Amino acid sequence: MVFRLHELRELIKLIDESSIDEFVVSDKGAKVVIKKSSGQTLATTATTPAVTAPVEKAAPVAAPVATPAVVAPVEEPTKAEPTEDLSQYHKIVSPIVGTFYAKSSPDADPFVKEGDQVNKDSVVCIVEAMKLFNEIEAEVSGTIVKVLVENGQLVEYNQPLFLVKTN
Question: Which residue range forms the structural domain that includes residue 123?
Answer without folding.
Answer: 86-166
